[in-house]
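User:
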Amino acid sequence: MKTSSESAVQQPLGRILSQLGRNYLRQLNTELSYLDIDRNYYALLLINEGKGNITQNELAAKLESDKVSMVRIIDYLTEKGYVNRIRSSSDKRKYCLTLTPKGIQAIPGIKEAIQKATTVALCGMEASQIAFFMQSLDIIKSNLKKANNTAL
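Assistant: Predicted structure:
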């Protein structure tokens, strides 16, 4: 006989991964509570890595995000004072993204918080388990990407 806490229905993989993502972000937000943003930390790292030469489209490709979501992300980070859009000198239709001094100042803390949250998340796992887990996630991502591309 099943207790009320047990369920005959297994949680879908997407739900489990979504819960992991939310809990990971919650951990990051706790570590970065001194910042006035609560998301898009990785976008800031990628913009920093681009050293003023990354466009919105390039960032969207790296984040695997659509253009509408990308505009929302950049608008949010711009309104909060972390990012500037600078018109490209070579192509007036494009904008390059740069970090403001506030954005640059946030980068070390973001890197440290990501490292800390990852350590918390993977605590108790051996290096071989972590490697297998990461490979498994890559396979799942690839499988779903292929399935979604063939469905179009």
